[in-house]
Amino acid sequence: MTGITRKEDWEQFRAMGRAPEGLRDVVLASWQRAARQDDLASRTRAPLVSGDAFAGLHQANRDVLGAARDHLARNLALMRASRALMVLCDPQGVVLEADGCPAVIERARDDRLLLGGCWDEAAIGTNAIGTAIHTGQPVEIRGAEHFCEGIQKWNCAATPLRHPVTGALIGVLDITGPSAEAQPHAAALSLAVAGQIVQTLGQDLAQERAWLLETLLLQRVAGDFILFDRFGQRISGADLAGRAGLPGLIRALARQPDAPDLDALAEAVPGAEAQILRRGDAALGVVLRLPRAPLRRQGAERPALAGRGDDLDALAATSALLAPLCAQGRMLLEARVPLLVQGETGTGKETLARALAGSVAPEGPVSLVECSALAETAADDWPIAGGTLVLIEPAETPPEAQPLLLRRLKALAGNGVAPVRLIALSTPDLAAARDAGQLRRDLFYRLAGAVLRLPPLRDRRAEILPLLRRFAGQAVEGSRRSPLRFTPAAQRVLEAYDWPGNLHELRNVVLSLSALSSSRLIDLPDLPPEMTQPRPPLRESALRDRARADVLQMIDETGGNLAEAARRLGIARSTLYLKLDSYGIRRR
Ligand SMILES: Nc1ncnc2c1ncn2[C@@H]1O[C@H](COP(=O)(O)OP(=O)(O)OP(=O)(O)O)[C@@H](O)[C@H]1O
Predict the structure, then answer these.
(1) What phi, psi does 304 have (nearest 5°)?
(2) Nearest CA to ligand 1 atom 1
(3) Site to substitute for ligand 1 among 351, 366, 471, 477, most atoms within 8 A of C-beta
(4) pTM of the model
(5) Does 468 fall in a domain?
(6) Which residues of the chain have pLDDT under 50?
(7) Cα separation of 146 and 144, whole Å?
(8) Ligand 1 pocket, 571 CB below 6 A?
């Protein structure tokens, strides 16, 4: 602890630039910065931002203001009793909130230690707010340690506030009182209240993250995704942190959700689709849906996820139900019978197709084609020299592209030199799509040489716990966290749940729980409420009515956009069409 800085010390420094003995380093460094600014010494009070600018700052800093509100109110009586003010500033030192002893407020008004006053060092020299911002450390500045004489009537103690997620400076909490009156605990109190505000902000943000995860779970997102909060921090999903500028892009997206820079995003993650998640008017996060493997050209390198021979063995070993499917699939594919793999979303159709392709033709390329993206003219780059062609959702092939698809398939079959193996993956019943006139009959018979049906997870309950453990392990890969464990009660609920989104849903639930759990042990209260709340038994007709109501509500919510409605329901578009048909609803 060093001695008290007297007015003479400050005058000596001003006149001769000589630092008084015992002056604290933090004060000396700040004085030297201030002395380099020509016009600063003559300032008598802090500058004021305009009313409009202040309103903008209030809005921009609403998170920290919201987190601070209760703490400021709770300390008001103490501030009044100790003849002091508690002041909250933004990261540039502009006062956003100030309250305390009325007599002190009156005096502080003259110096503009009030809403909109700017207490940055560059604006009014050495003071606790400005110096805490400059150094990033808590600091106390007493009486004559202030560089501008007009504000030497104050003692102030300030603590920088740091964002609980990003660590960025988000404001300053300051306690100021007259220098003639001792404020022995001001520094400690400023430190304590600043800590409480940051803690509350952290809790608010944790709630936001939980809301984002729940929202995503309810949407039953199929396929791979990455969920970000509005600060560009990844909450769940694949780690693409290495992609240049991705967090910045996500922050920009969440800040300006109505004019997203989709070009920049497409450049960072080609083919990804961004959806802003909003609660009321506030954009709280962004989910990036990652593209499926794109169309692969002949001879293209095998996709990273491509199956290998041992993948099929591993898949077969998962359950007694998958083993015969894997064995039959392999024999059929070896005999070049076109395979149709049929199953609800997330039952593992693509995984099975890749494993089959890898086991039968380990060296050949695996080419995936999204049939919904086929156009009348765009199939020239199909592989025709061996390998496996996987057609995803053939029922979604636009009608105008179906003749071309048929011609292509005929050509592939007739290529005796290096014939292509064919696997089609369909979520809706492809025969029903054929009967509904959605898919040409000749196309259907060319694709469905043999049908492999992947049952939904609710009919493969023996796989649930092993999958749970596998996904829990995947969730912590590359991190120091330990895999989640599940209490017996939680395991029973998870095993009994119906999993309408199948493995996608199971994986999403485990990834989300893993991201949120600090204890690493999941019990009943941690599970999504829809799993633990008892549901009254419904008769079949009531079930159908409810499903119909859900579908219609989603279509309503998406303004009639069927593709979007299907995506949010977690079903293929063709399935939605079939459902609408079965409800007797005509679509445009
Ligand atoms: N046996 C398995 N073990 C572990 N993970 C699996 C297994 N089978 C599938 N998965 C994972 O489950 C998810 C769903 O699998 P997949 O994408 O193959 O299903 P799908 O039926 O093709 O889904 P969709 O109809 O939505 O395209 C994927 O994340 C996949 O990696």
Answers:
(1) -60, -30
(2) 315
(3) 351
(4) 0.53
(5) yes
(6) 1, 293-309, 538, 540
(7) 5
(8) no
